[in-house]
Amino acid sequence: MLVAFGMIGTSLSGVTFVSVPGTVGAGAFQYFQVVIGYFIGYLVIAFILLPLYYKLNLTSIYNYLEQRFGVTSYKTGASFFILSRTLGATARMYLVVNILQIFILDSMGIPFWLTALVMLILILLYTFEGGVKTIVYTDTLQTSCMLLGLIVCIIAIMNKMDFSFTQTMSALQDKGMTRIFNTDVQSPAFFLKQILGGAFITIAMTGLDQEMMQKNISVKTLKGSQKNVMTLSFVLLLVNFLFLLMGGLLYLYAEYMGLSVKGDDLFPTVALGNYLTAGIGVIFIIGLISALFPSADGALTALTSSFCIDILGLKKRDDLDEKQKKRTRLTVHLTFTVVFFLCVMVFKWINDKSIIDVILKVAGYTYGPLLGLFAFGILTKRTIRDQKALLVCTLAPVFVLVLDLFNNPEWFVAKLGIGEETAQWLLSQSASIFQGYRIGIEILIINGLFTFIGLWFISSQQRKLA
Known about the structure:
With 466 residues, the chain is an all-alpha fold. It has helices at 2-27, 31-56, 63-68, 71-105, 112-127, 131-160, 165-174, 191-207, 210-216, 222-257, 266-272, 278-311, 322-350, 355-379, 389-407, 409-416, 420-434, 443-457; strands spanning 383-384, 459-460. Helix content is 77%, strand content 1%.
């Protein structure tokens, strides 16, 4: 139960704490479509992936790729995980540190780099020796603080407006904020795309992610691990509803107070801008930091574990004694801490308010090859030419990038500063090819499909002998 409860914090992170409430103004409760998809994805993890991991007695889930295809596929899968998790974890950390910096620490004269460094040192102190067991207990504490902060903030705003729960839901319904399902087929938020995309996001970013799965496979029995995953899936339905409810309340309260702020800035502005009590501001900070730490500490530990086991092959190194192996693990742990710090500083240097959108899009590229590799291994009995796995897994995201460039040129024009003539050509080609259809959350599925097709072309019917 501790694993299941602690994974709530790991699954949500500071991005959920700030961004999900901010989506309600533009998209009502449409995000819940994705949450329904998450639930379906957890079913696949519990009853397809976990039995496979336990049957093979895996420490690293990417060992499956080695047993199924070979060393190149194994290291390719692990490398894509390391790349994606490093970018994703540091982006989430940047978002939280930046909020603390803008609303509190800048006025105290504390530089951004010092805030980021102190955060990383705190995380490093309790992950240095404890490993997964320490992470499970600290995540339980941090998840409790995050959920407590969320619930207290909801109650505080309801009390400020003198609303009961029924009155809150009625007011949100009158504003059209409780609408969940989007029936516009061409919209990126079309409900089938959102549900299907949410399911595959969970399968890829949880079931095929060493950070997320290392806690589940640390449970002694398969049945216990499955119980944890299903417990988590039900709890996340409730918790995400509470985040959406908080978002609706924040927009109602902002209108009540005459505020025009929206999006990711809404929750921090209301909580820290003297619109509520000082105590609520403190609780918000505790909740925000508690949302950050389970994501960052789990990522740091999982990256160390994956790099040592999957890339360095530390478990198989008979030429090293336990003392030398421990020294290597600590060196890798410290190195990733430095990498985290440098990445956070790069995000600060870019200083783009929507940098998280960039990273989430990149995650769609980096998890696609993992999805394709595992799907090909589980759904087919074909053997691939292992040496070519890296080429296929590299080309698939490149094809997706080109497709995305033509489908969503506005995004690339804004981010890359493409010239006006080129931008106009891209826009005209996009309108001609896609007829208004916009690729959204399903970009991960497309990436995985390209990888699957590529693996099929380098495969044969013959299976390797056990």
